[in-house]
Amino acid sequence: MSESVSRKTPNPLENPEQVEREGLEITERDIVFDCPHCHGELVVDLEGAGLSLTCVHCGQTVTVPEYHGPSLHFLEAATSKLTEALRNARKGSPRKFDFSNRSAAELVTRRADLERQSQEIQAQSAEIRGQVNHALIQLHRYQLKLDMLNESQAELETELKAIAERLSPEAPQVRGERPT
Ligand SMILES: [Zn+2]
Fold first, then answer.
1. Residue 136 falls within a domain, yes or no?
2. Of the four listed, 27, 51, 71, 124, which is most buried by Cβ atoms within 10 Å?
3. pTM for this structure?
4. How many structural domains is the chain composed of?
5. E strand or H helix at 125, and its extent?
6. What's the gap in Å between 53 CA and the centre of ligand 1?
7. How confident is the model over 7-50, as pLDDT tens digits?
8. Which of 66, 40, 68 is nearest to 54 (CA)?
9. Which letter does DSSP use for residue 59 in this model?
């Protein structure tokens, strides 16, 4: 099995942004929310945040909520598309290349093109690594906040339990009436 440089092959390393956007009705820029009147799903570009619009389902006036990043709806669809693209990319490799019938000039041009693509991929990788670090720190912060809330809740419950015991009819009489 051989493959020449001239053969038109789909780029196995698709741009993740492209993969995410392709074929999705909802994009990363959309605010997805439920109409407070009829609970119908509404999709508005993030530029529409804060505006009053007429619900397409029930005709009542709704206020578009603020944009808080890509919707879960978008993330779920984009994640399954990326997973599929990655599976296909892995299935295709490793490819074999046979350049025996290509001229030196063609190969030099192809090499320059590949080097440019490689630099783009490296720049994108660096950006994504930065985003991953940011998200991991954010995740750690959320987990600590959740732990703090659980601590507070446990303390409240202990105090509530102590009060309930003190107020129960079977509890020993209030302070001062017992012999010391
Ligand atoms: Zn509605």
1. yes
2. 71
3. 0.57
4. 1
5. helix 104-167
6. 10
7. 334 444 456 666 665 656 788 888 989 999 999 999 999 999 99
8. 40
9. -
What is the per-residue pLDDT across 75-85, written as a single tens digit (0 to 9) for each? Answer: 888 899 889 98
Separation of alpha carbons 105 and 92, rounded Å: 28
| 160 within a domain of the structure (yes/no) | yes
Check: CB of residue 54 under 8 Å from CB of residue 61: yes
114 within some domain:
no
Q: Residue 78 to residues 15, 24, 36, 102, 122: CA-CA distances in angstroms? A: 13, 8, 27, 39, 22
Ligand 1 centroid vs 69 CA: distance in angstroms? 23
Report CA(22)–ligand 1 centroid distance (Å). Answer: 28
Domain that holds residue 153: 121-167
Calculate how far, in angstroms, residue 62's C-alpha sits from the geometric centre of ligand 1: 8
61 CA to centre of ligand 1 in angstroms: 8
10 found inside a domain = no
Answer for the pair 31, 48: CB distance below 8 angstroms, yes or no. yes
